[in-house]
Amino acid sequence: MTHVKPQRGLDAIKPYVPGKPIEEVQREYGLKDVIKLASNENPLGPPPEALAAIERALPRLNLYPDGQSYYLRHALAEHLGVGPEQIAVGNGADGIIVQVCLAYLDEESEVIVSRSSFPVYDIYTHVMRARLVKTPLRDYGLDLEAMAGAVGDRTRLIFVCNPNNPTGTIVTADEVEAFMSKVPDHVLVVFDEAYYEFVDSDQFPDTLRYIREGRGNVLVMRTFSKAYGLAGIRLGYAVADPEVLAPLNRVKEPFAVNLLAQVAGVAALKDEAFLKESVAVNHAGRLFLYEQFERLGLRYIKSHTDFVLVEIGPQATTVAQMLLERGVIVRACGGYDLPHFLRITVGTPAQNARLVEALESVVLYSGL
Ligand SMILES: *Cc1c(COP(=O)(O)O)cnc(C)c1O
User: Fewer C-beta neighbours within 10 Å, C or N terminus of the chain?
Assistant: First the structure.
């Protein structure tokens, strides 16, 4: 029992509900063989080069990590063709979102996000007691015209999730170009490119170009959690003008990126074979799922990521629960304002087959 009240910003927060961990489902349902296709993790495991680097670093765990992540920032800079002063790293891309909100928001600010987009933007906007402005989806994708149209004097941030989680759609280079020509210089546009490596479209924007050209109101965010197979180690990064990054540096935890994450990140960037394999397995798996959803008469949204949004209907949450009881964890999308949909991570061929088998039995036998 406590009489101590949390700060007022928390009243507005819907807590983030993560996908259930495998161990929990095994315990709750007495199942041995459980697969998780709920959090867009890499089904191939971590990159071998990163594992080797982590092992080599273990004897140094008594020491604090480099607070500036010197080698990691330099490796990223070389990888991306920007300067190391244009890179900031964080405890996951989530950590970057926290840094951006701490650095740029207060009670006077407004933040523009899309409906049915990544919920972590909402949480930290509320923590800072800023006002959240949500624009509607257009054809299950972000409506950049509506987002630009929502800008006012108080707008500080716009989060453009591209590709968008949970719909898997992209906004194109032309759309982004038109959008950027409308957004005033006092608004920081955050492009969240967590799924960048999976995109297969020549229409996808080269947002780093804005930063190379010296735009002072663009920040691009990416992560090692998805294609790079390192969700458990927590590592993400931001690319922006050094003046945009300076406030992030002032608010960040002194050692936000741990020592193992730093060496794993450097090694993962070198493991090109792993990245290539991840993208190839995902691409083939995505096509397989499309084919199977069509066979089952289920509508889906074409995706540029390692997950697919599939329409089940009013029973989607029940179907997710029935899949859980069969040892397959997927994400019901009620919390994303898409209550008729499931978001399913593309797994290995065996996992995809198991998902389809379970989904087919649920859809057939429950008369849904
Ligand atoms: C997974 C995800 C993140 C978070 O990545 P972490 O680096 O694991 O914190 C950020 N944005 C989007 C859109 C994501 O899907």
Answer: N
**pLDDT score at 314:** 94
Give residue 54's Cα distance to chain centre.
24
Q: Is the CB of 208 under 6 A from ligand 1?
A: no
| Residue 368 predicted with pLDDT over 70 | no
**Which region holds residue 313: left if phi is over 0, alpha if psi is between -120 and 50, else beta?**
left
C-alpha 229/C-alpha 221 separation (Å) is 17
pTM over 0.85, yes/no = yes
Helices (H), the chain: 22-29, 48-57, 70-80, 92-104, 120-127, 144-149, 173-182, 208-212, 242-251, 259-270, 272-295, 316-325, 349-365
Q: What does DSSP assign to residue 277?
A: H
What mean pLDDT do residues 282-290 have? Answer: 98
Burial label for 289, CB within 10 Å (0-12, 13-18, 19+), is buried
Give the number of the atom of ligand 1 that is nearest the alpha carbon of residue 161: 13
Residue ranges and CATH numbers for the domains of the chain are 10-45+273-366 (3.90.1150.10), 48-271 (3.40.640.10)
pLDDT of residue 131: 98
Q: How far is the CA of 212 from the centre of ligand 1 (A)?
A: 24
Instruction: Write down the pLDDT at residue 189.
Output: 98
Q: What is the pLDDT of residue 19?
A: 76
Write out the two tokens for 350: 């065996």
Query: Which ligand 1 atom lies nearest to the CA of residue 224?
Result: 7
